[in-house]
Automatic annotation (TrEMBL):
Keyword Hydrolase assigned: no
GO molecular function: 2-alkenal reductase [NAD(P)H] activity
Spans through the membrane: none
Protein name as catalogued: Zinc-binding dehydrogenase family protein
Oxidoreductase keyword on record: yes
Record note on quaternary structure: Homodimer.
Domain Enoyl reductase (ER) stretches: 13-334
Amino acid sequence: MKVLLKHYVTGKAAESDMEVVATEAVELKVPEGSKDVIVLKNLYLSCDPYMRSRMTKHDTPSYVPDFVPGEVIIGYGVSKVVDSTHQDFKVGELVWGMTGWEEYSLISNPQNFFKVNHPEIPLSHYTGILGMPGFTAHVGFHAIAAPKQGEYVFVSAAAGAVGQLVGQFAKLMGCYVVGSAGSDEKVELLKNKFGFDDAFNYKKESNLNQTLQRFFPEGIDIYFENVGGATLEAVLQNMRLHGRIVACGMISQYNLVEPEGIRNLFQIVAKRIRMEGFVVFDYFANYYKFEEMTVQYIKGGKITYVEDIVEGLENAPSALIGLYEGRNVGKQVVVVSRE
């Protein structure tokens, strides 16, 4: 079984833009004569917001290539090596990296995969807290925002795979943290499980500028940007002098044919705000240090993580589309196989 992109998407993506098809019997061996190639059995697949952009044809190339209609969708996943001609990867090892939305994948660039060094931790965590989203939260908050103890931090899409960790990293730094989310259930999760100082349901707020003034009467030092649009406009009005905006994602824009324009940009000048985007794979050389640090946080009970797990590759299209509708609570994971 595998999941294909049926055609390029304009506007709102739907499950019908993808197709689940049966696969013929697969030879679980590296093709004869192939060097530095591995065959993977895919166990857990990651649904991530950036994947929507790859479903659209871009005239100007983006930071990741577009998907190809009729071909398997590609995303981060946790897998087991079932055959290898690469000296660094042995049969039976667990790895994570960019793999296909299919039961088995032939990988010709295994140097882009990371080994799972802590299989005692739930393997699904390597799609999230110990994978790309977790490392994204770490890089964005620590390397880009450069936080100081006592600063005021706002996180949008705070109950998602990245946001829930940004808030916890901020609390470990001694910051004051408020998050926004799209349901009361998620708001309670932020306050009662992830330890945010406060949180609000943006769908119940008629004036985001006034909302942010209520939660941040002295202004915002660090905004971890995951949504864009009206939230970013309101944040710009509420930033403090020399504030930092970490541009991680803008999920409110991904299904729009024409992206929204942003007002209040002059606040960047008036308040001397630094707004910086980043792409996590620029920092992958430091991943293993992050893995060791975060494993100790997990084992020490200093951070926690919530996953929204869907069973079965056939349910992957629904799980991915659910991200853009806010259906998921926590990191969206698809289980292909638990072994």
